[in-house]
## 1
Amino acid sequence: MHRVARIDGDGIGPEIIDAGVTVLDAAGERFNFDIDWVNFDIGSERYLRTGELLTEEDITGLETCDSIYFGALGDDRVKPGIIEKGILLALRFHFDQYINLRPIKLLDGVTTPLANKKPEDIDFLVVRENTEDFYVGIGSRFTGSEKTSLEVIRNLYSIKFGIDVESDATEVAYQIGLITREGAERVINYAFDRAQERDKSCTSVDKANVLSDIYGLWREVFTSVAGRYPDVKTDFTFVDAVTMWFVKNPEWFDVVVTPNMFGDIITDLGAMIQGGLGLAPGGNINPDGISMFEPIHGSAPKYKGMNIANPLATIWAGALLLENIGEKEAADAVLKGIESSILAGHVTKDMGGSQSTSSVGDWIAKQIRT
Amino acid sequence: MHRVARIDGDGIGPEIIDAGVTVLDAAGERFNFDIDWVNFDIGSERYLRTGELLTEEDITGLETCDSIYFGALGDDRVKPGIIEKGILLALRFHFDQYINLRPIKLLDGVTTPLANKKPEDIDFLVVRENTEDFYVGIGSRFTGSEKTSLEVIRNLYSIKFGIDVESDATEVAYQIGLITREGAERVINYAFDRAQERDKSCTSVDKANVLSDIYGLWREVFTSVAGRYPDVKTDFTFVDAVTMWFVKNPEWFDVVVTPNMFGDIITDLGAMIQGGLGLAPGGNINPDGISMFEPIHGSAPKYKGMNIANPLATIWAGALLLENIGEKEAADAVLKGIESSILAGHVTKDMGGSQSTSSVGDWIAKQIRT
Ligand SMILES: CC(C)[C@H](C(=O)O)[C@@H](O)C(=O)O
Ligand SMILES: CC(C)[C@H](C(=O)O)[C@@H](O)C(=O)O
């Protein structure tokens, strides 16, 4: 028996999670385990109703679960940032889910926007750091009348190039990113462990030539971890360049490890080359704690309730969840189910099919059961 | 008579600039102007010899020129960051070249790695802010024994989410990005001016949902500038999503304006969809000062002196330079020359041809002269 939290969230969230739950329950039937689903009413609706983002009670409840299955967040009535930071990022930080795992894999039968690339060319793993970097939420804004605060920044952080960047500015905003040695080490370790199980190659993506302080530390840690994995080939690439290679030579990559913000960017690009957001799952993992699995797409409010959204990313995220709670065979069966739905053309409109969200879930559940 | 500085830089820099100079001189002959080329010995070689990056004398000399034609920088013998920050970024900052202009245009006859995209689908302009954001070079590192400094950061910049991010860390690095109202305004104004001459659409790329302080200010400024251009359609996209749309729907974009770091990333992706770095020029522009034009690729040390590097990005950068110094007709002729070399297959190996660097330059020069 596994106790799994479901957070449907906003927009298409409830529909895609429904489809995922159908599939995971079928996998439980087939492989002899039960999932006890625990519902949490967390999202924009409640925020608009009560002003609450994440309550003490939510946290206490989630802490009784083995894992979290997460739909999607975002509502046009709420300013960008509130919900994402107050719920999604808050959960990642609270549960210290320091690994954001995003497989980039072109499944058989899926169309990629890249010319001449086949499933064997696009199959790598992005390991995104998930609790540091520019996601720590430290920053502020000053106006001219608060010049003293500006002076504080200026003096504290000796401006380089001998240039007084903001001398005449009437308003300045700043944002701080942090990388700690321990924070970098644990996620890079994880990436090397995964590389050892795969093709034994690990690429670090950073921008150490410009953001030298944080990514200089990142590189040092990467290099020192690499020393403990002599059988893994390593490589450094700058984030700007890596966007080119994802498009031109995705076959070069096996495991890619990267700080939080660059991970955000390159995994959306990765999602597109594997066929689009409708197909891209993510895991927010704390190997010693409670992990959370989600499609990496948003809540698509305009499709809410229409039963047309593509549930495959969510179902695939469900497979990652099963693997994480020790049901590896079931996880494999779910991924196989996804593949067979694609090959059978039993997919939603965005993938060229004509099926509804629930019908895709039901179909895959049936494949798994038989 | 125009006085133009040439900074060849490292690796293939001298060869590609030679080809560019040949073409620009030909354009001068044809359209009746002379270019007085002034050579500057700036780059890794000198740095390794003398320890100098950019001297007072360099600056004084460059200040006597109307424009700067810049090759490429970078040498494997120097740690990442030193040369880039000490020369390239230092020049951008010193001359306050606050606009980094990068046309993304698939020329006729060029192969894009995207399936089913034609020249009419890939034709937009990225306007990258060039003097602020995370490029200001402010950051530092602390070790555990300097805990007090850590406390300073912690207290000064109230950590959000109620989470004490780096509590047990033995080493922390931080990096600060700045956006000023004036800094955002001037580059966004420029982008809207360009949009007005084109298809009247301007897209802002940011990550205001997470880095809310700096990009919140950026969005506010974008919105207020947009109010002065009622004929220009506007749109906001997050940087992660925009990498998807560049690959899936590049035809959606006309002018894209973005802060420095995201601009760095998305223009490399843009370069790839327009056929690769061999074809991507950039202008570092100060409309009231001295601007600088360069290919956006690096110095490719391993091809140094082999006369095989693709000079088209540099020649195209030369066209942008000519336009900037008021020689619009000549600029158009250079771009036409580039297009005809591609259509004639008179190109380097990376583009499927068999020509040398200098032969491509000579051929285009000849086209322009006749
Ligand atoms: C919604 C947003 C805060 C989030 C992020 O930036 O991490 C999303 O883009 C993602 O990649 O999971
Ligand atoms: C070399 C590097 C410092 C530079 C940048 O990051 O701006 C380059 O990538 C560019 O895009 O011009």
## 2
Amino acid sequence: MSEWRKDPIVGRWVIISSERGKRPSDWANEPNAKGGGFCPFCPGNESKTPPEIMALRELTNERDVGGWTIRVIPNKFPAVNIEGEVNPKGYGNFDMMNGVGAHEVIIETPNHAYDLSDLSINEIEKIMLVYRNRIDELTKDPRFRYVLIFKNHGVAAGASLEHSHSQIIAIPIVPKRVSEELEGSKKFYQFKKRCIYCDVIKQEVATQLRVVSMTENFLTIEPYAPRFPFETWLLPLNHYSHFERMPEFMYKETASALKDALSRINLALGYPPFNFILHSSPIQDENLFHYHWHIEIIPKLTKVAGFEWGSGFYINSTSPESAAEYLTNIIQ
Amino acid sequence: MSEWRKDPIVGRWVIISSERGKRPSDWANEPNAKGGGFCPFCPGNESKTPPEIMALRELTNERDVGGWTIRVIPNKFPAVNIEGEVNPKGYGNFDMMNGVGAHEVIIETPNHAYDLSDLSINEIEKIMLVYRNRIDELTKDPRFRYVLIFKNHGVAAGASLEHSHSQIIAIPIVPKRVSEELEGSKKFYQFKKRCIYCDVIKQEVATQLRVVSMTENFLTIEPYAPRFPFETWLLPLNHYSHFERMPEFMYKETASALKDALSRINLALGYPPFNFILHSSPIQDENLFHYHWHIEIIPKLTKVAGFEWGSGFYINSTSPESAAEYLTNIIQ
């Protein structure tokens, strides 16, 4: 028997249809093996990318040379342009504005053979701190209202280069998806004076039905109404609305939870392509009582088709309870 | 220079970033060649599907035998269940209800080798009339508020069987995407007392910037703020809110416009995988002055990645103006 479930934050309905379900081993992944050929993200090829925005190097202050551990560069084919004003215009029924924004790439490791989950917790912590640093810098630009940080891993998840990297887009509009989360959680807060995410955390910890793992500071769950099989959320147990405004020690905690979750997904599903997205508050906003930053990981196992495009609803063949069970029982 | 464009109906922003653009011939499609092997949708294999709901046969009244031109069957792996009541329930923060709904498959032709666009206008008209018939039947079930009709063509677009077919899902909730269209167009109507779609049609016909083709009764355009390269919309020139409530002759007009649009897309893009979705009003609603039914065709050329999942916005590398130019100049 399939069931409709409603996401408690944005109100999106999802059909959990486990009759169509598969075991993790049934998901056939496109091969993710790292090929040969020229890679512009590898050390020694710094001159093949646009000049770097920043990099972590221990032995030199020189720019655009080797010796770095993390390197941030402008996207060579940016979706948005760093120059110019927003300049809104209208033509009859149509509104437009200049494609102003920043589009940056964070090369997470010099080692072409490593995926994010292969890095140590300390190395991933440094990536988290670079995220924070870039958000802080981009917040100084008054044109930008939101910074979106995400990772496309594997061809099927939209990555055009295989060398491990994440992306930052700073834009003058709060994204539709984030607005829905902000509105949903604000409505809940106005009614109950509590953060809906904090409430969900309490309920998940109490029932343990969908918990993948938990540390002193972080909770990893399969959400109640997941759009996709093995969709996984990482939430700090304490309430922080902005990723970039946490106490220092929390970045290592985030790194540890991320490595744990990705490792479990990799072992359960055979290193699938995936996206992860950092959901945080609009950068210019004050601290929000109703919004709780978190990371959503989406393994790319299924194809989004006509039903999803037509309805904005999702059909998910794996219940979050069974996905949580698989992921919890992974021996690392 | 890329630009942000706002969909005039739902208010969704799209980044048109033509610097990343490609020519139609640059889109590498996964092969769509029709393979061998057993096909449950082929004539002679009627016993391998669930018993048919209806079929068009000229020579016999017998059911579940050959001799049909179009055949409608229940989906063998339905996302929703036809039996039971909706029965909403809550557990703490979480709401759910039974996965009640109808999930049907329309086998569009007995000929395994034919795609929808290979059929004659008369044959496609019959499919349109079957759509109407099924909507009318499903409207009699008071549990259902919406009937979604869509087609997944090709593996990359989510089709699990290659024999040409479309799908019908009847559900107890108006889909989120449709709600957004209904709300956006209602707001416009309350303000201007005009249908936003009728307004867009007028503006598109006047500028011709994004028109692919036009007949006496139908307009095919690339929309102003398309999510995807070569996203194509078919709109009746006259205002009808419900697909199933048009005058009889309009179904042939719809068939003709659909064949024309699919043929142009096939020739321009080398028979790409695609989804099409029929956007119509909620079945139980009276005729609506503010909503205008239409078809959206989405060729599956790109991969939806972290940016889109995180933002609900889209980055599109092909401007609708250049896509319209390609499609208009196709010689059929």
